[in-house]
Design brief:
By secondary structure, this protein is α+β, with helices and mostly antiparallel strands. The chain has seven helices and five strands. It has a five-stranded mixed beta sheet, sandwiched between helices. The protein binds FE2/S2 (inorganic) cluster (2 copies).
Length: 214
């Protein structure tokens, strides 16, 4: 019996000594604690042209082009779907090429010409691609539509410029506006409403009206 009590006491004693030594080792040395340095966001000046107007912004260097357009210039036509370059809802045209604006930093576009859906046309003066989307019901909820239309406009420019795609059979032949070509080139623009067939009809009509090779 006495042996059992002694063993219990000595076990408690060992634990107490251990806890005390731990406390000493983790406690900061008095007088040596320094406040953590305050992190300041790094900002930069960037100027570019958006829909024909010069814009100059002072931005956190981590600001994406999409956030600069939406949050700083209040051009909310470009949509944020995934914010990971996977859906195409944020597609805009920069210097004639379509890009996912969520995947690029605004400060990388000093001096660029940016066109968003607001710059393609207006309710009273629709761009032919906007009008064709309306005519052919190329949307349902409309969330993906600004990106689809920017992409569609740029796709026809790519075809006119003779740029081949992964489904072009002959890389040296002029590109065409076949359904396969249009679907492949638009594959980065996801439509959760599944309006794909009508989008292709709209694009085909604009391509034909503008004399783009069929
Ligand atoms: Fe940019 Fe989806 S929001 S690709
Ligand atoms: Fe709804 Fe395309 S129209 S996601």
């Amino acid at each position: 019996m006495y042996e059992a009590v002694d063993a219990e006491l000595s076990r408690r004693g060992v634990l107490a000594v251990g806890a005390a030594s731990m406390a000493v080792s983790v406690a900061p040395a008095v007088g040596s604690a320094r406040p953590a340095p305050e992190l300041q966001p790094s900002t930069a000046h960037v100027a570019f042209e958006v829909n024909g107007e010069r814009q100059a912004l002072e931005l956190d260097t981590r600001t994406t082009l999409l956030d600069a357009l939406r949050e700083h210039l209040h051009l909310t036509g470009s949509k944020k779907g995934c914010d990971h370059g996977q859906c195409g809802a944020c597609t805009v045209i920069v210097d004639g090429r379509r890009i996912n604006s969520c995947l690029t930093l605004a400060v990388m576009h000093e001096g660029s010409r940016v066109t968003t859906i607001e710059g393609l046309g207006s309710p009273g003066r629709l761009n032919p691609m906007q009008a064709a989307f309306v005519k052919h019901d190329g949307y349902q909820c409309g969330y993906c539509t600004p990106g689809q239309i920017c992409s569609a406009v740029a796709v026809l420019d790519e075809i006119r410029a003779g740029i081949p795609s992964h489904v072009s059979a002959d890389l040296n032949a002029p590109s065409a506006t076949t359904s396969d070509e249009l679907r492949e080139r638009m594959s980065g623009n996801i439509c959760r409403c599944g309006a794909y067939s009508n989008i292709i009809k709209a694009m085909s009509e604009v391509a034909e009206a503008s004399g783009t090779p069929a």
